């Protein structure tokens, strides 16, 4: 398969696979518990395969200093405390020191990279992600995580316009906004921004060892 780069050098971009979404005991913006279990296991299997084939894992973790950094987003401000909004807890989500800021332990391993300065849906905003990727020669991003229709989609779009080859791993992403939003995001990615494949397909395509 032609990915438009001379020689693909991939890394996994694991978006917000933290307790704030996936641990029902502490999550402030939780994925449904049954869906969380599925996405955790799919990512665990994919990450194990990537590590075995020499593909690095980069964990992106949303972390705010305080609620003011959240409220400065006009749309998010309108979601706070709206009882019908899936993101009604946005102003109380992943403030520094909260347990939700921790990567799910079964998904983290020694040698993984962590970027914990993510502030917006687009993982490149206010973080050193691009610097780190380019310094390590990464040109192909295998994108997993939560939520498909916000952080995953926004990061895939940004990766595309920054001239990375963007690949969304469809069995390793999900959203708290439901299956229709999930499928719509994957449709947008396929149409204009990158490739969509399963974790097994990605390992067969990009595995090095």
Automatic annotation (TrEMBL):
The keyword Hydrolase applies. Keywords: Hydrolase. Pfam families: Isochorismatase (PF00857). SUPFAM superfamilies: Isochorismatase-like hydrolases (SSF52499). Residues 11-200 form the Isochorismatase-like domain. It comes from the Bacteria. InterPro entries: Isochorismatase-like_dom, Isochorismatase-like_hydrls, Isochorismatase-like_sf. Gene3D superfamilies: Isochorismatase-like. GO terms for molecular function: hydrolase activity. This is Nicotinamidase-related amidase.
